[in-house]
Specification:
The protein is of the alpha+beta class. Helices cover 46% and strands 21% of the residues. The protein contains 24 helices and 25 strands. The strands form four sheets. Strands 6, 7, 8, 9, 10, 11 and 12 form a seven-stranded antiparallel sheet that branches. A seven-stranded mixed sheet has the order 13-25-24-23-14-21-22, with helices on both faces. α6 runs parallel beside α11, α10 runs parallel beside α24 and α11 runs antiparallel to α23. The C terminus is likely disordered.
Length: 719
């Protein structure tokens, strides 16, 4: 029994146990140890999570107990304290993928055989004791080892069938045929590994890989240090535009903080002394001094990351198209081989049939060449897919869950309504508002600027301007004082709104709008209503998804009830989950799962990461998405285009169709070859040539998917 430490912090450790069947025994050994608070196992992937009291039992005691009397056989994960980023995946093309190494070696051998037999008209020995025989047996060892492992688990897989074919071919003096089977198999597995690695590396290009530094207060001096060097009770100084790296309490200062990546709320929050801030949020405007309470692995953000990692680790294995095709081929191959042996009573003919049916073209190449071509086409459109399974399943998913802010809406608010309370023209109201906010970078100020610029309005310079964090702005223009801010800001300035205006403001808020007031001197001039702008294609995309077979669409958002319900009404979404915390999003997604259905979650923030990991397929809107969301997701939409979801579903269906076409193309030729072999009309050498012919046919058919990248002009209509 072996185990690997996948994650470890004080009080909690997660292990990967092999073989999976050892989990019950390990859990039983741990049950009698004082200090263990809980154990959780997942036999599907060999995961064991142990919660313990560090004051009662040490980490080493637990590891010794897990190892048992035979002693520990552990492999500590050097990145165990955090979720490993995509860039830490093992390079595929530089010696760490055994299939690629074998494929290169076998290619050299096959090339040498070709030169000697075809170009030089020579003869090569193929007996079991010849050099080719030794090479084929040695090359088949990994395949035989995998087959024996599957046999111990009472599974007879394609590896077992291929191993039997290679071994039989070598011992019967057909080493070249065995090498050909191994060459195709290793080439297909290398292709699959390359696809996954290329996707991981593409995702890593999206992530923020810049140095992680922050400022702490040392005496009266701000000192820049790495985030990893921050300790609890340090005073962290956070300026406009900086990411908050610790959980802590604001000791002094004021700022507008965008915590939408954590909470999903669409509006920045005003924070002041005594308020709590969380790692992963951003300072939009202002300066705050935060006393760090939780740093590193102990922040709220890190706890979310660990839950994401656990969810990803505990996903049950899912049968892929290649697995299903392989299962079909194994059954057909066994029936054909045994049937030939029984009917003809000729082991040579039965052997020929086995060699024909043992070609992996009908399974691994049929599915993996199709998936490779489809993923290449998707990558050209800025869609990065981390594995073939997700491409296969996204086309059949019938439950889709969406985050709101940044997913179905943009992250920028817009002016929805201007309620004029004066005799001034609307453009003049915008002129005053734009002039007061011309130096402000608050999202609402930017929305005012955008609308004013669109109307061709130029701002007027002011003599004095004061920003009050969380309240508004006061600007002086000659003898006039302009105030723009919320109701509390107006009250603090001695400006009150009448009952009718308060009623109107309440009605706008009930629709999910953010309301601010514009006043000149002591007179209210206007009331502005802001809304997060829905993506232009959001409603059309949702309608198209319903038409493509999606039976259930849900909104899962951290926004308030009124804002969320109003938005669902606009989008035609009946299932609305509002005011949801990040931990609750994953629970909601898990609750939507049911046998025979596939759940897709689409999101962009840290608060979506658990839901993305919990879903059968997670899709991240990645252009402005959080690192954790992109890590947790299975598919990343680099260009943030919702229509790409429609494209993915169509591409998935085409990929499955072509994989099935490939399977029957290869299987039909296999069956024809098997019949010819059973009748003595096909030699083992001719069987090998047949493999090459239908391999070319499979690759050519899959290459049609490369044409599915499409152009920008057809993007909105799918493939």
């Amino acid at each position: 029994m072996n185990f690997r430490i996948r994650h470890s912090i004080a009080g909690r450790i997660r292990l990967k146990i092999t073989p999976f069947g050892a989990l019950p025994d390990v859990a039983a050994r741990l049950s009698g140890i004082n200090g263990i608070q809980y154990t959780r196992t997942n036999p599907a992937c060999g995961a064991l999570v142990i919660g313990y009291d560090p004051d009662q039992v040490s980490r080493q005691t637990l590891l010794d107990a897990v190892a048992g009397p035979a002693g520990p056989e552990t492999e500590a994960d050097p990145t165990a304290c955090r979720m490993p980023p995509a860039t830490e995946a093992a390079p595929i093309l530089f010696g760490k993928n055994r299939h690629f190494i074998h494929f290169i070696g076998l290619s050299g051998v096959m090339a040498a055989v070709f030169v000697k037999t075809v170009l030089l008209k020579g003869i090569v020995a193929q007996t079991v004791f010849s050099p080719l025989g030794f090479i084929s047996l040695f090359s088949a060892i990994p395949l035989v080892r995998d087959a024996l492992r599957d046999a111990r688990e009472k599974r007879f897989t394609l590896e077992g069938f291929l191993a039997a074919g290679c071994t039989a071919a070598t011992f019967s003096g057909k080493a070249v045929t065995a090498l050909e089977i191994l060459w195709i198999h290793n080439g297909a597995e290398s292709l699959n590994a390359w696809i996954a690695e290329r996707s991981r590396r593409s995702v890593s290009d999206i992530l923020d890989l810049t140095a992680k530094n922050t400022f702490i207060l040392a005496g009266n001096v701000e000192v820049e240090i790495p985030v990893a060097g921050v300790r609890p009770r340090d005073i962290v100084v956070l300026h406009t535009g900086e990411k908050i790296c610790v959980d802590g309490e604001v000791m002094s200062g004021e700022a507008m903080v965008d915590d939408s990546p954590i909470t999903g709320r669409s509006e920045p929050a005003a924070v002041k002394a005594g308020d709590t801030v969380l790692a992963g949020s951003y300072v939009c405007h202002g300066i705050i001094y935060v006393r760090a309470s939780c740093v590193g692995d102990h922040t709220y953000l890190a706890r979310i990351m660990r839950k994401v990692e656990d969810t990803l680790e505990n996903r049950a294995p899912v049968e892929s198209v290649a697995d299903r095709l392989a299962s079909n081929l194994v059954r057909m191959g066994l029936v054909a081989t045994l049937g030939t042996a029984i009917i003809t009573r000729d082991l040579w003919r039965a052997f020929t049939v086995m060699l024909v049916m043992a070609c992996p073209c009908a399974t691994t190449l049929s599915a993996k060449t199709a998936v490779s071509a489809a993923m290449s086409a998707a990558a050209k459109r800025g869609i990065l897919i981390k594995g073939g399974r997700y491409l296969e399943e996204v086309g059949t998913a019938d439950i889709l869950c969406f985050d709101k802010t940044g997913t179905l809406t943009t992250t920028e608010p817009r002016i929805e309504i201007i309620f004029n309370l004066s005799d001034l023209a609307e453009d003049e109201l915008l002129l005053w508002a734009y002039s007061a906010e011309m130096h402000n970078h608050h999202p609402l100020a930017l929305a005012i600027r955008k609308e004013a610029v669109a109307r061709g309005i130029d701002p007027v310079s002011h003599g004095q301007c004061d920003f009050i964090i969380g309240r508004g702005v006061r600007a002086v223009f000659g003898e006039d004082t302009i105030r723009l801010g919320n109701r509390q800001f107006m009250l603090d300035s001695g400006i009150s709104a009448g009952p009718e205006l308060r009623k109107k403001a309440t009605a706008l808020r009930n629709k999910g709008l953010t309301v601010i007031f514009l006043a000149r001197n002591q007179t209210l001039l206007a009331m502005f209503g802001f809304a997060n702008e829905a993506r232009p294609d959001a409603r059309a995309t949702l309608d198209a998804l319903r038409g493509s077979g999606v039976g259930h669409i849900a909104l899962i958002t951290g926004d308030s009830e009124k804002t969320a319900l109003n938005f669902c009404g606009e989008m035609g979404i009946s299932d609305c989950h509002h005011s949801i915390l990040p931990e609750e999003k994953g629970v909601i997604v898990a609750g939507l799962k049911k046998p025979g259905s596939r759940v897709v979650m689409v999101g962009d923030g840290i608060n979506d990461a658990l839901a993305l990991a919990e879903a059968d397929i997670g899709i991240a809107m990645s252009a402005a998405g959080s690192d954790i969301a992109i890590e947790a997701a299975d598919i990343a939409l680099v260009k943030n285009d919702l229509a790409d979801i429609l494209y993915l579903r169509d591409l998935s269906k085409k990929t499955i169709s072509i994989a099935n076409q490939n399977f029957w193309l290869a299987t039909t030729t296999n069956i024809g070859g098997a019949l010819a072999g059973a009748m003595g009309m096909l030699s083992p050498v001719a069987a090998g040539l047949l493999h090459i012919v239908h391999t070319l046919g499979v690759v050519a058919n899959s290459s049609r998917l490369l044409l599915q990248a499409g152009s920008a002009s057809d993007k909105k209509s799918g493939v």
